[in-house]
Protein 1
Amino acid sequence: MAPSRIRIALGLLCVQRGVLVPPLGIKERVLRRGEVSRRLRKIEAGGNGREAREIRKLFLPPLTKYPYSHYQYLIDLSYDGSSFSGWQSQTPNGNPHRNESKKQGKQALPTIQEILCRGLAKSLKIDSDIASESLCLRVAGRTDAGVHARCQKASFFSRNRLNPNVLPSAINRVLPPSLRVNLAREVPPDFHPRSHTLTKTYAYTLHTDDILPPLLRITRFHVPRPPLNLSLLAQGAKLMEQETSHNFLAFSGQREKARGEGRGGERGVESVEIQKVSGGLEIRVKGKGFLYHQVRHMVGALILVSQSKMSLETLRKILESSPEETSTEFKPSWRLPPPQGLCLEMVEISESTPSACLPLMYPELRHDERGWVTSRVQNKTAQI
């Protein structure tokens, strides 16, 4: 049977039985002939098939008079960072974590973005060749290899309107156990998870007992000796708190690159809290944004201060120095703690974010057909 006849037959059957399926017509929404036949058999059998039930629940009818070609969805993620080579998909030569694995003869781990994009394409029936461009997966903050996340925020686009209540279970069925989608919500097409993030909270866990239990080795950094002075640790944390800004360029792993791109090292840190946990300590850092490796370098400096290997006055001078005074050849006296102790605990999104059914976030600005905010810069349309 010709593909056009299959679509007509499927449409007639859905009208008769009140079954809702995704609209067809373009490459990323056309179902393969075998998939259509299989779904038809499940639906004709009374809808007992799990996939058929998920299809009816997952895809919703389009909004009336919706002027844009795509809908956007915000998802809440959690993952075990030890199973991935960081968030961002890159070429093998452009990913330092993969290069290191290759040098050590290890098999390179996939990135979270790759696995999530592949899972979304499979669950939403999008051609894998165009999935990356079609989904336009974006994230609130890119995490490094080995860093965990309890509440990461990411967004993607879909030509079909989806049911946010069913979306997490539909995606999780095709994701590995080390990556999970916890929640989903519909957001306007001009929403951006990074631009509309208010604060991020990271937690670094230190294990200070003599013996590190094997089950905690992928979530804690073992620092048994010398013992940490909690008073000095709290004083050092207090010095780092500055909502306006401190110069954290010395706490960045890419000082030369940041300077070359014209990015400054001043960052505001709302709070640095020290909490006792079973067998160790947890250092929670909250702020709007962070430099590359900043939180881990902060923890390394605090460990050195608490062990009386660096004075509070030295830490104060580093923080109060200007970015121009921080040389790109600066070598910190502290050790960079390993990534497994770090976890992205919370990403706070602006509460003023409306749903896709409500007005846009920037109704007064110009939008393209996809719903992105655009501006004229040197006769070119650039996304804000």
Protein 2
Amino acid sequence: MVISSSSYQVNDTASLDSGHLRLRQLGYKQVLRRDLSVVSNFAMTFSIISVLTGVTTLYNTGLNYGGPVVMVYGWFIVSFFTMFVGFSMAEICSSYPTSGGLYYWSAKLAGPSWAPFASWITGWFNIVGQWAGTTSVDFSLAQLIQVIVLLSTGGNNGGGYVASKYAVIGFHGAILLLHAILNSLPISVLSFFVQLAAAWNFVGVFALMVLIPTVAKETASAKFVFTNFNSDNDEGIHNKSEETKGADINGPKGIVSSIGISIIVGWGYQLGLTFAVTNIKHLLSEGNDAGGYAVAEVFYQAFKSRYGTGVGGIICLGVIAVAIFFCGMGSITSNSRMTYAFARDGAMPLSSFWHKVNKQEVPINAVWLSASISFCMALTSLGSTVAFQAMVSIATIGLYIAYALPIFFRVTLARKSFVPGPFNLGCFGILVGWIAVLWVATISVLFSLPVAYPITEETFNYTPVALGGLFILVVSFWILSGRYWFKGPITDIDK
């Protein structure tokens, strides 16, 4: 890996930030305020990855399908290949530090002939995937609030209050409203919350990974944690580059460092939780105090068994809830910057409206659009859980496809023409890129397979249906309309 800044030094623009200069070379004006330092950029990415969010909300799935051994070792397998994706994206980000990120990269790397379609398909998969991701994060926070209320009022077995699905959607709407308000603040103010979020996630995850197994009166053995396989189940930082100082160097650093640190602390958090697990079947049972929310039950019972009250466990859940809140805040930030960039290049209906910025240089209309669409996506949960799960599945595979497309173009069509930036992988760039592309292809297939047999309406994996539907809509929009007017990213340096 090579990091050098000599490539973009120009005497008459020496006073400019290197990322600002590179943006000018790519043909764009600096419109968004460049107030994110390398620390803030890392903090934003680390907060969006949010170990406390990911591990907590998916812990039930890990326990149900494989148990401790799958989570402990599977984490490192997935993390290993995810780093290849991160390194490849970091290398491309260093060469093209624009707010649009992925879709701009695809346009430049696919070449003039394929640029419009490549950027179109990448951009739409990215933007819809981000909207779905925000929906998923904020809805998971609404569900956690539901569990906190349940436990605070006596628990499932003590007459506790179970919030209805309408109350949950109300929580979700309120959360999105707060996120939109915070993201309407100047980026310099938002940067403070971003760094607070990173500190909260970092300190919180270390505190909980030590506290829970220490408080729990009964803990699992090392053999259980590292070898137990559970087969007992009943079901058979690329979009913020234009606001980052020295984005051609600090953007890639933020991507790689946030992924690497998240891998380490995430594994530690999983271990801490799993050492407090002694009865998987009970944790997954809807008849427990937390209504089947495994992590909440672990925290609640750990404190209740030792101190006679689960208040300490509820406070721990509050720590996680704040971390998820910050994660959702960062997701809206990322959504709005992608929307702003895509609209700036004329790829969206009413583009001139969505890419406007206010006096504080915040893409205010894009912020509120992102929050509104995420709320509308969550409304499907009122009618069908299956439909909602299918929609938010786009957040995983859809985004991974958007990540892989520019990498694929970099190792194929742009194999010889790619001009690396200050951060580059040298002679290993092609190899790392191919591993990243093959990894995304593999998990796209695996995540589309049924998770349980026999296959019924409830166990069928609707991810391929959701992705196929999105692909058909995007390509149809292109064939019927987009190909006549969308020419790919538009330079605005002379406007």
